[in-house]
Amino acid sequence: MKKIFKKIVSKSDIRPEITKVLFTKKKLVCTDSYTLLEVNRECFKKDDERKLSILESRFTDQALFKPEELDLDDKILASMPIEENTTFPDYQKVIPTHQELSIDYHKVCLDPQKLATVSQAINDTFGSKKYSKVVLYIPKNPQKPVVLQREDQNATGLIMPLSQ
User: Fold this and answer.
1) For the stretch 27-52, what's the b/e string if a residue is b when 16 or more beta carbons lie within 10 angstroms of its beta carbon?
2) Which of 97, 72, 91, 93 lies closest to 22 in space, CA to CA?
3) Is 119 exposed, middle or buried (0-12, 13-18, 19+ CB in 10 A)?
4) How confident is the model at residue 20 (pLDDT cuts 50, 70, 90)?
5) Residue 60 carries which DSSP code?
6) pTM (global) more than 0.90
């Protein structure tokens, strides 16, 4: 589970609450204030679900965990200190509702591996240049490819949509 959340949580101690994963009875959430990931418990199977069940039995409403703590041995999970009912940003305000998604957004289904691959490839063209911009073009026709392009148009990636 650490792998899922480690890339998103904040690395800065300025806001320590976002250096951890929020765990509620139904979801796990993390943010660095620029990106956010919310994952329903149903996404986790077998060992991960067992670990989540151990942790869930130890708090009443919500708790915060470092990403690496989610992968600890069961015995440690059952006895380690818990940061319960702590403050976490009100992330639900920024997640669009289903109605907002249907009105304000174009829906295109993509292969997540291909999206990651193209995004990483374009990112690699920047070298060590930090805070470079990539533009995402979502077509009005859901059968056309999604386009990722450097803002300076020096690199372009296309991803064909999956059939809906």
Assistant:
1) bbbbbbeeeebeeebeebeeeeeebb
2) 91
3) middle
4) very high
5) S
6) no
Q: What residue segments make up the domains of the chain, in order of their start?
A: 2-95, 112-159
The predicted-structure confidence for 102-156, as pLDDT tens digits, reads as follows 999 988 999 999 999 999 999 899 887 766 889 999 998 888 999 999 998 889 9
Backbone dihedral region of 153: left (phi > 0), alpha (psi from -120 to 50 degrees) or beta? left
64 beta partners = 22, 83
The residue type at 161: P
User: What residues are paired with 30 via a beta bridge?
Assistant: 37
* Averaged pLDDT of the chain: 90
The DSSP letter of residue 40 is E
